[in-house]
Amino acid sequence: MEHIQQLTQLIKEAKKITFFTGAGISTESGIPDWRSSNGLYTNNEGFQELISLSYFKSNPEGFWKPYKEIYDIKLLNDYKPNSGHQFITKLQEQGKHVTVITQNNDGLHTAAGTKKVYEVHGTLTNASCPKCRTVYDLDYINNNDIPRCTQINAKEEICDSILRPDIVLFGDPIKYFNESLNNAYASDLFIVMGTSLEVGPINSIPQYIGRTDIPMVLINKDKTNFDDLFDFCIYSGIGETLEEVEKGLRF
After folding, report:
1. Which residues form a coiled coil (predicted)?
2. CATH hierarchy code of domain 32-78+126-167
3. Is 3 assigned a catalytic role?
4. How far apart are CA 37 and CA 133, in angstroms?
């Protein structure tokens, strides 16, 4: 309980808060942790090749069926933001300058209403045309086995290019690294939630912040190899932890 009170006080005093989130915040919405013992990274042998940049480039038509199956795209609209996502948005509504750096690609931080979200591994909720960059939403993706661009070009011809999902595929660089790091440096509180911090290079951001005097807190069910970076760690569920913090903040 002491750490809950400490975190509550840090949030009260902070003006700029950066949250760094991983799968643990989304599992509370029912989304599987893909790196768990039962996740797709364990149960889909050879999946990395099927959702790689090289495979998309070599076989864009063949890419889409395994991509949709591996990520259960048809179910994505069923998942909703939970109390952890909503807590962050409430801080924003209370006038805090909130930034979210997330490893998740489910779009739930944005769905909860948080305005400044860096999805460093991209998002499953959109796909874009490689030629004209037109963005298409999840409904369009789900309603087309092989989604293609429907834009009319200058020659009054349909573009018809096969769309590319807006996630970071294997072989892609991560997105928004510099923007994420700069925002983290500008914060006066850095909170890591629901991640083992095993995935690089994005896990270097907490390591960089650990060299500063910015207060750092970890909320995670399990210990990580980087716990010594933090001022303190709370080994518990995100939702239940933040519900206790919210009581102390008295929104």
Report:
1. none
2. 3.30.1600.10
3. no
4. 37
- DSSP 8-state assignment for residue 16: E
User: 233 labelled as ligand-binding?
Assistant: no
Longest dimension (CA), the chain: 67
CA distances from 21 to 15, 24, 119, 164, 244 (A): 19, 8, 10, 25, 19
Model-level pTM?
A: 0.93
Q: Where would I find the H helices in 14-159?
A: 23-26, 40-43, 47-50, 53-58, 60-71, 83-93, 108-111, 138-142
CATH architecture of residue range(s) 1-31+81-121+174-251: 3-Layer(aba) Sandwich (3.40)
Q: Which of 201, 202, 205, 207 is nearest to 225 (CA)?
A: 207
Question: Are 102 and 117 contacting, i.e. CB atoms less than 8 angstroms apart?
Answer: yes
